[in-house]
């Protein structure tokens, strides 16, 4: 059967169900900032576990998400960054109508990024942040490989990796974006300050 691509406005918007109420978001593997949607958006969302890249066989709506949550809580994915329930929001996602808050990392306070965020028609909030000492990064070099760990050490500022440092490295155009994504995975997995604070 031949299918045709749908217009962008009709395609689902991908996210994750924050059933654990994590302050840094349901799926930090994708970045340090996230949009927290209003509860009513759940009524036009579908979910799967694990992520669709793993070709999942378990799907549901918000009224039938209990089984998906049980699967996610069983920690069947070996990497903690993969233990989220993927969400697909159907229809438009409008910042003024559908978003409770844009949640940012505190490394962006008083930065041009905060200035831009304050112009959006939704509130801005902050989570505890991501910060990874290079010493800890190198202790886990085998996580994404020694070359990626070395890149992380190279772009760190004063021995510390933050989302801002990785963003600056990406903006420089001097590094492979896929390699920087893997550097971010180190920070997301080992540098979540909300976990260090027991949140």
Task: Describe this protein's structure.
The protein has helices at 66-73, 95-98, 112-117, 134-139, 146-155, 163-172, 177-190, 193-196, and strands at 13-17, 34-37, 45-49, 58-61, 85-89, 99-104, 124-126, 132-133, 160-161. The protein has 199 residues and is an alpha+beta fold. It has two domains: 8-126, no CATH class; 132-194, no CATH class. It is globular, with a radius of gyration of 18 Å.
How many individual domains? 2
Mean pLDDT: 93
Distance between the termini: 49 Å
Strand content of the residues, in percent?
Answer: 15-25%
- The SS-based structural class is alpha+beta
- Largest sheet features: 4 strands, antiparallel
With strands numbered from the N-terminus, the spatial order across the biggest sheet is 1-5-3-4
Shape: globular
How big is the Rg? 18 Å
Low confidence ranges? none
| Total DSSP helices | 8
- What are the secondary-structure elements, in order, as H or E? EEEEHEHEHEEHHEHHH
Fill in the keyword field for this structure.
single chain, 199 residues, alpha+beta, 8 helices, DUF3626
């Amino acid at each position: 059967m031949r299918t045709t691509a749908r217009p962008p406005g009709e395609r689902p918007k991908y996210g994750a169900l924050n059933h654990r109420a994590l302050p840094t978001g349901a799926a930090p593997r994708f970045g340090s900032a996230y949009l927290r949607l209003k509860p009513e958006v759940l009524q036009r969302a579908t979910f799967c576990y694990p992520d669709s890249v793993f070709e999942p066989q378990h799907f549901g709506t918000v009224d039938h998400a209990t089984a998906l949550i049980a699967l996610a809580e069983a920690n069947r994915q070996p990497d903690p960054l993969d233990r989220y329930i993927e969400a697909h929001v159907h229809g438009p996602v409008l910042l003024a109508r559908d978003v409770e808050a844009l949640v940012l990392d505190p490394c962006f306070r008083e930065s041009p990024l905060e200035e831009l965020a304050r112009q959006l028609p939704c509130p801005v909030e902050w989570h505890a942040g991501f910060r990874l000492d290079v010493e800890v990064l190198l202790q886990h070099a085998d996580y994404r490989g020694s070359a990626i760990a070395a890149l992380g050490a190279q772009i760190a500022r004063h021995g510390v990796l933050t989302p801002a440092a990785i963003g600056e490295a990406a903006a420089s155009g001097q590094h492979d974006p896929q390699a920087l994504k893997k550097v971010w995975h180190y920070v997301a997995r080992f540098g979540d300050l909300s976990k260090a604070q027991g949140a």
